User: Fold this.
Amino acid sequence: MPEAAYRVLYTIRRFEETVLDNFARGVFFGTTHTYLGQEANAAGVIGQMASGDLIFSNHRCHGHFLAYGGSPHALFAELMGKQSGVCAGRGGSQHLHWRNFYSNGVQGGIVPIATGMALAEKFKGSGAVTVVFLGDGTLGEGVVYEALNMASLWSAPILYVLENNHIAQTTPIELALAGSIPGRFQAFGIPAQELDSADVQEIAPVARQLLQEVRAGSTPRALILHTQRFGPHSKGDDTRPAAEIDRLRAERDPLSIQAARLSPQARASIEREIDQALAIAYQQALDDPYPEFSPGSMA
Amino acid sequence: MPTVLESLNQALQRAMADHPQVYLLGEDVLDPYGGAFKVARGLSTAFPKRVITTPISEAAIVGLAAGMALRGLRPVVEIMFGDFLALAADQIVNHISKFRWMYNQQVQLPLVIRTPMGGRRGYGPTHSQSLEKMFLGLPGLRVLAPSALGDPGELLYRAILENEDPTLFIENKLLYLLPLQDAHSLQDFSLIPHPAGTGYSLVINGAPPATLTLSAYGHMAELARQAAVRLAYEHEIFTELVIPTHLAPFDLTPLLESLQRTGRLLTAEEGSLSLGWGAELLAQAAQALGARLRSARRLAAQPVPIPASGPLEAAVLPGVDEIIQAARLAAGKD
Assistant:
């Protein structure tokens, strides 16, 4: 179903563009880390997950949330700090929880937590698989390796999806990473598969196979997706030359690749529909009230 | 009477027997070793599938347990020495304590991190600290500390099974071998549990009205109790002891009620003085009582790393004599 995947890709793209376009208006709090260019990873992996499976995502979580089926209105509202937000404005862009989707904004620490979730599901016998998304920059955090060791030791049913966008904030991977990425997983006995693609239809079958292995064997796997970030790390902090970004957009845009499989009419119709839905969601979030402060049941 | 160690061990046995969701994770927790301080002894034999001995990876152990707690289990983590909590600080500060509120109360996180703290065993600078003050006042984290009074095991049992917040459970090492003190064994004192279950007060039986409130927790509470006896018999200073088990968040009421009677406060803690637990108690008491708080003092460790040498360690950590000395000052006797 090339249309279904394109809908996810286009929703993420337009959502993130809407956020960036409107940030300067002051409607959002804090910052954002957009997923422009990496959409095929979320769509390809999450599209293969079963209901009941878990996702732990990171600071760059909007694409994962939307691909999981999260509401664009609730996400706009969360970024705007509104009561109708995913976490009623308490978390903001990086701190989401809805159904079995979780995210947190500090690098590395989510990896043992996701591994513990996978083990809990194994102990409970639920059959659920956990997917945790991490980036190349996160490979600098030591706790990641503690968690990989335990995942392998105790056969946690988890898929580590490493999105290597080749840049950590402004630092190119060459300045931050020694050695091999798959070797990092393989050192702990976790099979790792690499893919260098912006094509959701190439990513999906590989993800499907790995998820099947994780589920059937109750065992960890790693999927390394070499990818490219088209936008800045957050809002305006891209130090790469504009020509390079233009080249990346021309050569490996997940939307162009998938759109080529659709009829022009089908594409136009999907885009029109999503543009309209996102415009309504944005406006609705804008009109929603801010939350009242309540300390809640804090320890 | 059973010891504090036995009380805690039996509570873990009971919690694991009562609820299949309870798991124990920690370094060297398997039998026959049963953990560095033996609190976990017997558990892996009784519950082999639910006691998991881990690599030396404090951050990931705590993170793993947090993930388990978010997904409906009730994990208990043993950190071998409280000093090693520093290795898990990111998990505690940026993850565990945040999730419930940050996710708009949509999750529960019933996780207990147990750890021995404290010195007086010659372990030196990195295995003797009382670091709990670094985690006091962190929103979203409950910090409990048993003493030998009442039922430390029950405190642990309830933290594991009757509480949906992440909890740091501080066990002073010198408590482990002390016998539990109940109303019967505390011959000189009446043991008064605080109404909200957040600690105990000790009042000397048959004594004139107290003129000083002495507050301490953990093993320091036992030293404070010994000091209170000598203060009464040798110095004619009569004290009420307020001994919280809930360090954060905490209920000020029992302390204020005692201070209404005595007007004088001394806090004693094994951690370092500056910006610590006692400072917070004094501040809150002063804010609540104003001029009715006539005197207030703190006693705590010297601001240096804890030395290994016995005499040096004794000079750094306050003992019974130092409590008596500080109490005389607080009571206006010196």
